């Protein structure tokens, strides 16, 4: 079946570092991908909708200059957390919109020291 | 999208059927009911979805009431690996919010031996 691959699965880095997370749809083309964030013991919160070839649409309260999204091809979207700080530590999950439902990656656990 | 209400937690004995309820009393005619589950530290996994008819696949059955104001996800023979957070989501089939999933708190299902 359809698979979404997310890389890396875990990142630990120093405060002030920028971190890039990749999300790939492996066997289907995804014109739309989504980025979610999940804090411990909380539910997933949608951060932004990424459309191939156009600017991402950010949810209210999500800083677009902090979380840069690029969706340059039909199989790849990237999320860059710029100048990450400890409060950005979280579980970041991407998904790709398939024909009838969304397919999710396995998430990236980001820890900022 | 319509809001959903689920019990925060449920228990089930291994091998028995797990019946997870969901209320979506404000659902509108073009909104689908989706079920996903999230096993600890993984991305959500699609289970099943439906509009008004009952649905069954290799994972589960979805029973939607005639007035569509509630539904039940049935795992016919729960195993320990079914322990997860189960999310019931009502999603618009079209419009500007197409594809967006709004996750609530879900139901923590614990399957015990």
Overview of the structural elements:
- By secondary structure, chain A is an all-beta fold.
- Chain A is 0% helix and 53% strand.
- Chain A has strands spanning 4-7, 10-13, 19-25, 32-38, 45-51, 57-58, 67-73, 76-81, 90-97, 102-104, 108-112.
- In chain A, strands 2, 4, 5, 6, 9, 10 and 11 form a seven-stranded mixed β-sheet that branches.
- Chain B has 113 residues and is an all-beta fold.
- In chain B, 0% of the residues lie in helices and 46% in strands.
- In chain B, the strands form two sheets. A five-stranded mixed β-sheet of chain B has the order 1-9-8-3-4, with no helix packed on it.
- The model of chain B has no long low-confidence stretch (mean pLDDT 92).
- The chains are: A mainly beta (113), B mainly beta (113).
- Chain A binds chain B through residues 4, 6, 32, 34, 36, 43-46, 49, 91, 93, 95, 97, 100-107, 109, and chain B through 34, 36, 38, 41-46, 49, 87, 99-106.
